[in-house]
Amino acid sequence: MTTERSTELTTERLRLRQWLAGDLETWAAMNADPQVREFWPDLLTRDQAAASMEHFRGELTQRGWGWWAVEVAATGEFIGMAGLDPVDEEAPVTGVEAGWRLARSAWGRGYATEAARAVLAYGFQTLRLPEILAIAVAGNERSRALMRRLGMTHDPAEDFEDLTMPPGPLRHSVVYRIAAGAFPVDEP
Q: What residue stretches are annotated with the N-acetyltransferase domain (predicted)?
């Protein structure tokens, strides 16, 4: 018998949880949306979206943390993902990366900021990480603005060309970081 050990995070409006079979339709639709995938080289097929979901599910089960499914607590509506993951080996930077991706219908409501704050709090308070970073395509101003709202700082000396991306504007990546001591801790 296998026991899942993924952690759930809750905020005032959101629940970050393990992936459920019922998330697939929305997840596949999100990853087939050109606006959601604007800073990725291609859209995902339904099968590719399902495979990514199963990968995330497995990492959450194995480690207890990773890329969580995000739902609106009041309604149970699945709206995307947020989480933490070790930086890909191909990147010229190391550490644990925070990230997020929400359905367009969830944009502009502060959900990404709320989910990202919960993820950072978990990384610093539970995992005791010394710092967390975030990587984005240089032109992804929405993500960069969120990184700044989180208190993350950008050092242009760490910017790099992501050779896993096709030649063009998607290759130039920026790195933002925040140290554990710079992240505000909410007192109970």
A: 14-181
pTM of the model: 0.92
pLDDT one digit per residue (tens) for the chain, 188 residues: 344 567 999 999 999 999 999 999 999 999 999 999 999 999 999 999 999 999 999 999 999 999 999 999 999 999 999 999 999 888 999 999 999 999 999 999 999 999 999 999 999 999 999 999 999 999 999 999 999 999 999 999 999 999 988 899 999 999 999 999 999 866 43
Distance of CA 61 to the CA centre of its chain: 17
DSSP line for the chain: --------EE-SSEEEE---GGGHHHHHHHHT-TTTTTTSSSPPPHHHHHHHHHHHHHHHHHHS-SEEEEEETTT--EEEEEEEEEPPTTSS--SEEEEEEE-GGGTTSSHHHHHHHHHHHIIIIIS--SEEEEEEETT-HHHHHHHHHTT-EE-GGG-EE-TTSPSSTTSEEEEEEEEGGGSPPPP-
